[in-house]
């Protein structure tokens, strides 16, 4: 069985350790052995109980949503965006003959301990997207604010606006505001089909299209450069949200069932 190395700089490191030309090492690893480097990811620890729940609930969700029915799901999530420039380390590369030739303004991305930030909520489906909802500064998301900011203005009319009154299902994770009796009861009172707190797998950022695809896409667009104010960040987020091609959202949503399958194959473990 192959043992893929995880460091993005693995080939260069191996070249130094074995005193072999970098290109020779690249050909040996990539062309001769058919291996490639993989990024190491930080994830929450999954104990046996969480792994079992992930496995059981993925099996149930896969049975509930037959192939093609993922188009009927409205996936939702919240995310904190800051005024700082987005940085995807493995993709941020600068071509130069020497490191010393790179100006500091390009070489380094300034970071502060507590940058200005905005919390937003959004929902996506294969054929639509919601408005971005900005959580007011200083407001904590609880059952009441979730209902007032998200459920009543966006979700109550989503069946008509986003799904043209066809059958649809609302997805949310098990955050306290989502899992509360008040929030869960609201969906039943509104006759809206939803994935309940006992159905969605715990610790499952790898199963929500917003988490495994859409948020990073939006951040790379809206925060390509740092912002001087929250208003500038807000304007950029609103603009770039509408510019994301629907096809990209559709591709992310269409990964949902295959990701359920992957988690099942890994017995509830994380997937990339």
UniProtKB/TrEMBL annotation:
Gene3D superfamilies: Ribonuclease H-like superfamily/Ribonuclease H
Annotated GO MF terms: nucleic acid binding
InterPro entries: RNaseH_sf
PANTHER family linked to this entry: PROTEIN CBG27172, TRANSPOSASE IS30-LIKE HTH DOMAIN-CONTAINING PROTEIN
Protein name in UniProt: Transposase
Lineage: Eukaryota, Metazoa, Porifera, Hexactinellida, Hexasterophora
